[in-house]
Amino acid sequence: MKKARFFLLIMVSCFSILLTSCISKISPNFNKPPEGKVLLKADISRILSNTNFSPKIDGLKAENPEWYVIYENVTKGDGIQYETIDSTEMELILEKSSIYVVGLAKKNDQGWIEMIGVLGDPYLGVTCIPVSDDATEVIDLGRLIEDEGILRSETVSPDEFSRMLGYSKDMIQEFGKSDITFKNFLNPDINRNGVIDNSENLTWWITSLYDFKIDESAAEPVFESFRYVFWINRDYVLNTYGEDFAVNSINSEILNNDKDIATLTNLDTGEYLKPSFVHVEFDDYYQWYFDSSSPKNGTYRLDAMGSETRNTYSFYFEDLCFFDPTKDFEGLITPIYKSEVYSDGKIKNLSWDWKIHTTTGMKDVSEDIVRLLSNRMGYFMRFYFATKAQFFNGEVGPDTFELFIPEEVVDNPYEDQTVNLESSDYWVQPSPWDAMEVRGDYLMVGNTDVAFHIRYEYLETPHDFDPGHKGDPPTSENLNGIWYNLCYHSQNWNKNHTTLDEGDKWACISFDVSSGRFEASWLFSFNRTDFDSRVALVGTFEISREDPHVIVLNPECGEPIYMYIEVHDTYFEAMVSESTPTEINRESEDYVIYSKYRNEVFLQDFHSPNSPKDFEGTWVYDGDQPPIGIPAKIKIQNVEIEDEDGNGYYDGSIYLYTHVEDITPYATGIFRVDVNDYSRIQIEIPGSETVEVQAFMTDNIMKVCVGGSTYLYRRPD
Q: CA geometry: angle at 283 spanning 278 and 287, to 5°?
């Protein structure tokens, strides 16, 4: 899933970089802009006054230090543009309905080009130039002065600045909280060779990836992880550094060994990261992914090491800024999503409410701000679903999904709304985990990607449920197969399968008519060839002779269970009880409904041990953590195959451990196997009552039934 997410993000960004800029050169005395554009004017003499800069006189260029105006249309994402400064008057043509980041840069004494400042207004909190459709034809900022890295107007008030941009002052101040990352792209010389990067065919990009869990029990989205992504065009790397650099990256799509392939160092704090992922996309860009517990502002150096020479190739990114977790991610837009899903996995609807992070909690955000800050090159929202065919074929993996992009089907995705998807072919992805949560992301201008996951809201009935239709009794033809209900799967997800509350329902039940066996599970695994560790019951079943609607389940552990069943075309309804039910009552706690997944059945071949010796060895609990009182590890040794005591049991030794890694057991005792039925066990621990156990096996799994509960143990790998 994550790989697919990065693939699409990269595709959008690569396309954006290749776009041609529509901005004209610096052009003093250019008076009227073309239609759909504005003229940005500024007097930069004050900025240049502390240098030996002198303007061009009589058409002859003076001997000047190298000064540049650096700019980018971040709405389009068309890459850095630049012009050499030879006048104290700056004029730029900007497109309307676009956000620009504009700054001045100069070659320093060390010979590389560094930024002097960016245009903005510290009072309004903006470090960019957002130009609306209603902007004035000329935005004349007058004389600029430098104010802690921001080049602001000395004479134009914040109100007048806002008016010329075509927005209210309140709108610009609200917007200013979210323009955090735009100036990251004003790094004109990342290899510090004194040449503007795009003049030597060096293009690059930075993406910041935020992952949030939207938890209904929490007041705010829960931040989970952050990832920096740096990417540089392959043509430049090959032409400049040769195959030493290229081979290194191409051979390291997934990093398993060489953690020194690259480092990312924050030069302000000294902290450094090793890459989690290095990739070549479309044969066009090298990409480095660095995972971090949280983003940190600062100047960064990316060091890539040659695979043969171990030469270091360094790239510098000055003054990077990110949405700050210590300030509650203030300014970050996060749509809060919900999705209702039928019990068979078909998506019913999807809704979203636009919110913005503030220092006092999540707040509503205006439609205008969402429209201004949402990516316009390709998608800005997307969700990962599956088609019906993918769902029922059990197709999982990074490329097996159906992408839903709301802006392709919704007139105004910038406002809060609910989209009905019942007529569309959207289903949950067919894995135990992906069936639990809707996953997707939102892409802001500035290449900030906000990923999220939130639990689906499951309905208890399937999408084709017909309450007025009476079903047929179960037969060998219509009952055979795998049946499931993802609503029950969701309800049981965070519960231990041995401690479910009374009334909890199986997520899956399978009937193999040919063998007369059934298997019921608390969770639905989709791929029945993989063993589901949360099997609740296994046993035999038979259709009642008294009532053809009733089947009797005979578990290997526990008492008989009765089901009154009505089978429909794609689902069956049932009443489940320890006594014989006689009719369907949808209001009863005993009522269940299951949809057909497929006709083929793959039941685990549990059987009684072939020999008492089969128990010998080490067994570890199959799951994250066993319930209190249940050992995490069991060791059985020295099981005799002769009944030396004449008590009807073969005796051995058993050792119980609290943790898998423990060396010393917390209890030892006698392990006894019934001479007439190897599945029946007695465990005697000194000072405790003798425990009666029933155990069944496959090649590597032991299922232990005790006290009406089932526990699974595996032989360690």
A: 25
Pairwise CA distance, residues 180 & 324, whole Å: 9
Burial class (CB in 10 A: 0-12, 13-18, 19+), 73: buried
Q: What is the pLDDT of residues 42-60, one digit of tens each?
A: 999 998 876 655 554 444 3
Strand, coil or helix: what is 529?
coil
Q: What pLDDT, on a 0 to 100 scale, did the predictor assign at position 285? A: 85
Considering Cα of 633, then 635, then 641, then 647, what sign does the dihedral take? negative
| Interstrand relation of 381-385 and 361-364 (parallel, antiparallel or unpaired) | unpaired
User: In this structure, how many other beta carbons lie within 10 angstroms of the beta carbon of residue 309?
Assistant: 12
> Position 322: which residue type?
F
Token output for 379: 């998608």
Tokens of 588: 């009863």
Closest CA to 469 of 348, 586, 341: 586
Q: Would you call 515 helix, strand, or coil by DSSP?
A: coil
Q: How many CA atoms lie within 13 A of 226 on its CB side?
A: 16
Q: Which helix (H) or strand (E) holds 390?
A: helix 388-393
Pairing of strands 150-153, 113-119: parallel
Q: How far apart are CA 134 and CA 120, in angstroms?
A: 19
CA distances from 114 to 9, 11, 179, 458, 557 (A): 29, 30, 21, 54, 74
**Which helix H or strand E contains 440, and what residues bound it?**
strand 437-444
- Reduced DSSP (H G I as helix, E B as strand, rest coil) percent helix, strand, coil of the chain, to 5: 15, 40, 45
The list of the chain residues with pLDDT below 50 reads 1-29, 56-63, 249-257, 529-533
Helices marked H in 116-157: none
Element (H, E) at 589: none
- What is the reported pTM? 0.80
Residues 489 and 496: their CA atoms lie apart, in Å, by 12
Per residue in 666-685, pLDDT tens? 999 999 999 998 989 999 99
Instruction: Provide the phi-psi class of 83: left if phi over 0, else alpha when psi is between -120 and 50, else beta.
Output: beta
Contact 99, 372 (CB under 8 A): yes
Return the SS3 of 700: coil
| CA 83 to mean position of chain CA atoms | 40
| C-alpha span between 324 and 331 (Å, rounded) | 9
* Measured distance CA(529)–CA(435) in Å, rounded: 18
